[in-house]
Every structure is written in C-alpha cells, then in structure tokens.
Amino acid sequence: MTLLIGKRYRNELSESLGAQGIDVFWIPDCPSLDARLAAHADLMVFLSGQMAVAAEGIYPHIVNYLTNRGYTVKAASGQGPVYPADAGLCVCCTGRYDIFDPKTAHPMAAALLDGIPVRVAQGYARCAVCVVDKQSIVTSDPGVSRAAKTAGMDVLQICPGHIALDGYEYGFIGGASFKLSENTVAFTGTLDNHPDRERIFAFLASHGQKPVILTDRPIFDIGGAIALP
C-alpha cells in the first residue's frame, strides 16, 4: 500500500511506516489552506476508484505522481483558508458508505460518490471519522454518529478532545488514524491518556481489527492519510 500524507509529518512517521512496509508520498503544504491545516491530506486530495481530485494549490506537485500510477487527476478550484472553503475534499468513503456534507462537498468530489450516502452537517467528515471497516466507524461527532447508525452502520461514539492539533484546542480521531491494511488501523500516537482507549480497542477487536501505534507520543491529528490501493 502507498499512502499520501502531509510532508510536515515525515520526520515523525516515516520510520514507523517503513517498518510496516508502507510506501509514502509526502505532500507539500497547500498554500490556499490555513497554515495550521496546510499539511492535512484529507483537505487536499480525494480519491474514488482511478479518479483523483486535488486541491489546486498542490495539483502541480501531485499530478505526475498520480498519473503515472494510472489515476485521472483533476484540479479543484475554490479552496480557501476559512471553513467551509477548506473542507470541499474532506469526504469520508468507507468502501460501502459515503459520509459527507452536501453543502460543503466540492462538486467534483460529490460527482464521484457511488456508495450508500450518509449525509451529515459536518464538512470535515473524513477528519471526524476513523474508518474501522466498510460499515464500521469511530467518531466523536454526535450528528455523524446518528446519521451513520440510521444508515445501518456500526458506530462507536467517543468523547471529544484528547487528540492534539497544533493551533487548536483539540483534533479529531479520523485525522489521527488511517487504515494500513484490511485488518489494521494505524494511530499516530498512543491512546494511553484517552478516556475511551479501552472502548476503542475493544471495538476494533470486535471487527477483527488490530491497532498499530506509530509513535510513542500522545495521539495527534495529521489530517489522516489517503490510501492508494
């Protein structure tokens, strides 16, 4: 597997991801985003099948890489540093369900959705959701939790906070985790200080998933990772 991750996090994550046999393409910061979020992959790239939509600001840096791997890549204009202009590509696809805010999703991304729709009022849907498997998620967002359960998904709702994000009070579980394989979920750091640690690990185990802790620092939000299967 190859992951797209913000280059800002290379020093912290490259060694542990390499030990897992994971290749990474490190994306440079996006100039159109708030500096605090400019390295967040979930705000810069959206993939569906062999189609990719990249934020205009990083399109020149990523188009050749993705094209050489068989993707058709389009540049999404209109991104800005203030919500909701930064959230257009932050759509969460589990492989069966598409969790997104119809009001904020970029038209190019929305046009590629082909899963069961889970419409929410959270523009940062991908950041808010830790994908466990095709029909199971972890989230601290009550609205996302309700909508996903109504759609038939298995949801673990956790308490907000306890995840670091520089410049903000706290980050989100989806931005601090990502799939490494069909049966593993990576976390950027330890959950030792998270009040829902045992519930999260039990939920993963109930779905046949193994957690992989990438660093020894407390869990932190990097804007997740975009997987190239």
What is shown here, in short?
This protein is α/β, with parallel strands linked by helices and 229 residues long.
Structure description:
With 229 residues, this protein is an alpha/beta fold. It has a three-stranded mixed sheet, with helices on one face. The model has no long low-confidence stretch (mean pLDDT 98).
How many distinct helices?
A: 6
Structural class: alpha/beta
Low-confidence regions: none
CATH class: Alpha Beta
The spatial strand order of the largest sheet comes to 2-1-15
CATH homologous superfamily?
Answer: L-arginine/glycine Amidinotransferase, Chain A
Largest sheet: 3 strands, mixed
Rg computed from alpha carbons, rounded to a whole number of angstroms: 16 Å
CATH structural architecture: 5-stranded Propeller
How many separate domains? 1
Q: What characteristic shape results from the CA principal axes?
A: globular
Number of strands: 15
Fraction of helical residues: 10-25%
**Run of helices and strands:** EHEEEHEEEHEHEEHEEEHEE
What is the mean predicted local confidence, pLDDT? 98
> What's the end-to-end separation, in Å?
5 Å
CATH topology: L-arginine/glycine Amidinotransferase, Chain A
What fraction of the residues are assigned to beta strands by DSSP? 25-35%
